[in-house]
Specification:
Elements (H helix, E strand, L loop, with lengths): L3 E11 L5 E11 L5 E6 L7 E6 H7 L9 E5 L7 E8 L2 E8 H14 L11 H13 L10
Antiparallel strand pairs: 1-2, 1-7, 2-3, 3-4, 5-6, 6-7
Length: 148
Amino acid sequence: MRETVQAEVIMTFLVSEELSFRIPVGLVYDSSDPYAVKFTFHLPGDAPVTWAFARELLLDGLSQPSGEGDVHIAPASAEHLSDVFIRLQVGCEGALFRAGAAPLVAFLDRTDRIAPLGEERSVADFEYDLAAALDNILTGNPEGQNAG
């Protein structure tokens, strides 16, 4: 059974030291992809942008600097859990966001009720879904549509 957790949080988009603004960010966890979370950033004047990354990365980033590559998450303070920084990087372009830790913890808590960390494989028939997707690709039917 496919289950979804959704939330909306307000984050601060830190454009520069002098310029920042608050934006809504949609958070989604879907049990059909039990290892990932999706963040959809609603930037003013632009189409929404969605980033998917490991749920465990988000959890780890609440307490210590975490991430390699395009996504880095780190607590704003080493002393107490208050805010976190989320840095997204594409090539030489990057964006920095500051979010309250409490709504992220609440979101992760709700995802953990569906798929406890470390038990993601038991939530979805992950191997069947992967085999079906590969079969659709190999047969030239990438959307899984019936040919008849």
